[in-house]
Batch of 3 targets.
Target 1
Amino acid sequence: MAVTTMTVQHRGEGAIVWDIRNLLVNDSITWTTDLNYSAGSLEFDIVEVDEGFTPHNGDIVKFYWDGIRIFYGYIFDFKYEPEKFTVTAYDKLRYLKNEDSLVWPVSTLSQRFSKVCNMAQISHSIVSASSHKLAAEVCDSKSYFDMLKTSIENTEKATGNLYFVAANYDVVELRKAPYKALTTVVGDKSLMTKFQYERSIDDAATVVRIVREDETKGQKSTATASGKSAKDTHYTTVTASSRHNIDNWGRLQHVENAKDKSNKAQMMEQAKALLKSKNKQAYTLTLTTLGDIDLIAGNAVYVKIQSLKDIGLGTRSVLITKATHHFGTKYTCEIEMKV
């Protein structure tokens, strides 16, 4: 396996295409994909030569590994030190960080995805369409990523389907997870070289408060969903499954404003829904494996690790949320998963 294409080209018709394969510093190519509304990135080092070639921000980068198209993007950053450039390029998802102000009518995620891609002037395709109608919304000075995030989260709540955006070389696609449900097994005897399993309550909440300002009386009315009862005339407290977690983790409180024109019952529904989503640990599994092009964010693989099975995590198909590939004499990657 080897780099079969690695070119840099200034934008514009007739610009010189530089083949930089022979300039690459060994084992310096890193490709990252991430479901967390981030552009895919390609980082690499090249040696300086006296042939008139210098990378420029905005230059087009194309990368093939073993004849397979991996990355198409643009240089956004480079660092120079004697006889070496360190280059960072991003795929077309980077242009979804552009900010705008839009008023969305009632429309689907697919329609909003097409709209923001057209606004960002990037080629795109809908691989998995959503027919769910989203409520009208005003987005003021938000990035296209933030607009899509809200639409994706609301679509998932309504349909149970998780959508995401990814770059397929030079085309940005709307996909449904998992994009590829691979039969590949990663574990003790297959691909994996090491792993790390983490449980965290850093972003958890055992108490959720929803606050609504009463404009007529100048007071605030609140609804609280928690695991313990509380006698407070200003709040309504509901006992939920977090009682056990308050005892174990302490009081971890999250506060949000009520949705527009919510009454007390609707505020309680909002509090309970938030509590359900936040009153839990985050489980993260990170694996270091031998390189495999299909191990990218949005795909799912089977994980089979005996020591994890011993603590209750048996063989199962798990969604990859982030993947970092290191190309070189040894092709390896790290994949992160939510389990």
Target 2
Amino acid sequence: MKVRSKESVRHSVNGYVMVLVGLGMLIGGIALQVWMAARGSATVFSVLSLLLLMVLGVLTLAGLYSLQPNQAAALQLFGSYCGTDRHAGLRWANPFFTKRKISLRARNLALDVIKVNDKRGNPVEIGAAIVWRVSDTAQALFDIDDYERYVHTQSETVLRHLASLYGYDDADDTHLDEPTLRGGGAVIAGVLRKELAAGLAEAGLVVDDAKLTHLAYATEIAGAMLRRQQAEAVLAARRKIVAGAVSMVEMALHSLSEKQLVELDDERKAAMVSNLLVVLCAEKDVTPVVNSGTLYG
């Protein structure tokens, strides 16, 4: 079983204080050298003291490093992880520590538009924008070889998988309760964030936001799908026109019957309904025809 890294807090020392300490050692070493030169006597002890002060001063200054807000430093001693310092400003730690700085700021990843097949097998073009940041520095640095490339690869994989779970739109009336890529909106974005968060958690990364930025049919079927959408729009308009016409005919028959303006048998009612539907549903203006005879021969 793989043992995962876990971030631990490492408290560092105020760097400004250590600057004074390091400079004090160097100045003390220089003063000791001047004093020995003035006296013209140098003992083994004084020479060793001079070297010790100079070496300690250099090592002290070598342990200084600075961190910006929302930046951390992972400290390692000869390859062993010793903790993470998240304190901003001028800091000091063991000069033998290796300090690997890592940004904790939110980052935006705009995925290139990729071509995938949706749930119904239609080729679509889809793109997304991901907002992510580092949460656990130890996992990001030591469990993943390149966490930035890992984010890009995982995001593209999740986006491809998401497109295969849903259809581009409602191609028929059999799955009206199922969200689609085009109409799903918040549902699709929520699924995208959830799957990304699960995939990136292993690298100590969190997802703050994820949304689709591009969605369209692939070029090879865009024309056919546009004609289908136009046909669906025409059918929807026709349904409304027919529904309205039927309602008007029903109202007319009911009004004639209620006011007893004219007595109509079934045949005359059928003729009236036919004529009214032609007038109301026709795309062009209808030319009236005056019947001077009777419906019966």
Target 3
Amino acid sequence: MQCLSRRAPTTAPGKPTRKQKMNYEMHQVEGGVPVKMWTQGVPVEAVALRQLENTARLPIVFSHVAAMPDVHYGIGATVGSVVATFKAIIPASVGVDIGCGMIACKTTLRAEDLPDSLAQLRSEIEKAVPHGMTPKEQRRGGSRDRGSWENPPNEADAAWAQLVDEFEAICLDYPRLKNTNNHRHMGTLGGGNHFIEVCLDEAGAVWIMLHSGSRGVGNAIGTHFIELARKDAELHQRNLPDKDLAYFEEGAQYFGDYVRGVGWAQKFAKLNREVMMQRTIAALRKVVKKPFETHIEAVNCHHNYVARETHFGQDVFVTRKGAVSARAGELGIIPGSMGARSFIVRGKGNPESFMSCSHGAGRSMSRTRAKKLFTLADQIKATEGVECRKDEAVIDEIPMAYKDIDAVMAAQTDLVEVVYILKQIVCVKG
């Protein structure tokens, strides 16, 4: 591959203004392309910076690596990074929660239309959408995981019907991906940082917002192809700066299969969020008897995915690992942590970020450290005013384990403009 293919032309259409350029810092990488970082006023871990540098040294990376203000260390590749690659894809940069993202919709309800006690609303949502996971020590034989359906509802069946034929075709080549839970996971939340929230915007309008991805089947697809890429790299990519950065080149044995698999998982994730939104709206209707409309404003966006796009006149694969597409006029969602504000934004189409923005606040510490550092009393205080779980199992999701969302938003004013500011009043977590 010629070195010139890695550079963006200096006279490319859509070249950013001087003002836009000043919003990021250029980090030069020896033996690689630069890393452009929208991190002014936001801390960046040394280990995350090393991950970014390793990615920048890959011969397939085009122009530069873009680091969003929520950037932090990730398994395989840096969370909060945008990587454009020339005729190749890095499976670990996409990760195993393929298609993970957000969906939100505005309703015609207002704050005063909600019941005084929000506990019933939270309970109805929890009954409507399976969430969390049964601990391994509590599982018996082939018993159902509580985070999946015993009998999928009609909405989940209808969504799965749109996907099953293509999935069966994929499984002919990769039978280990076939699992009965794949259908039962459609329309379910999962655990970790996945959530369903009822929020209010600054004008008092009620919103529903949720965060999830492709569940177990996306994990299986991602894990399988990451392992295949590592094995392939042992033969063909021996000078990789990190084994997790193994990649498939266009035309290679597994490239087409990965593109097909990851594309399918991204469709699963989008439909999964839509089914959960339907179920959550139905739960809201059970509690609020007043008729209301939804999807007055609506967004459904991935933030862990790969897509073929054109940037600086070059056709490339763009992988957003913890980043959202922010083309000019495009709506996106940037959630805060549990207890913090969230933002509905409109993209400005800044070419230097590959038309992207952050996907959230970004963790400031590991889950393990958060559990050691904070107490249940801290969790209760930090989520005051929010109807949510307040127990030791969710201490790792405490707001203080995340970066300051206001600082994150201030660092990317040249990437997005804020349309709505939301504050959660109900939060359901796995």
